[in-house]
Design the sequence.
């Protein structure tokens, strides 16, 4: 008896979970990184918005705000892309 047959016979839920992990390894880790980087860029963007609203160092705050918004948009895009690929594989 091969290992795959033994896995199918023992526990179908665990077999399905292992098969999904093989299809997309480290999915949870990638999603955590996307969320952590997105939260960090959101906090940074809020800080630069407050700095601009206060009128302090606007010349340097605007490019920094643009970078933070760009990173936030990228993390949202990657997280949604990850969610879409997970749903289509199921």
Sequence:
């Amino acid at each position: 008896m091969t290992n795959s047959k033994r896995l199918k016979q023992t526990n179908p839920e665990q077999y399905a979970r292992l098969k999904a992990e093989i299809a997309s390894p480290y999915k949870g880790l990638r999603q955590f990184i996307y969320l952590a980087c997105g939260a960090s860029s959101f906090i940074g963007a809020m800080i630069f918005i407050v700095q601009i609203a206060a009128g302090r160092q606007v010349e340097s705050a605007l490019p920094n705000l643009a970078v933070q918004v760009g990173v936030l948009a990228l993390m949202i895009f990657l997280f949604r892309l990850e969610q879409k690929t997970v749903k289509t594989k199921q």
About this structure: DSSP finds four helices and no strands in the chain. Residues 58-89 form the longest helix (32 residues). The helical segments are 3-10, 12-23, 27-54, 58-89. The two ends are 28 Å apart (CA to CA).
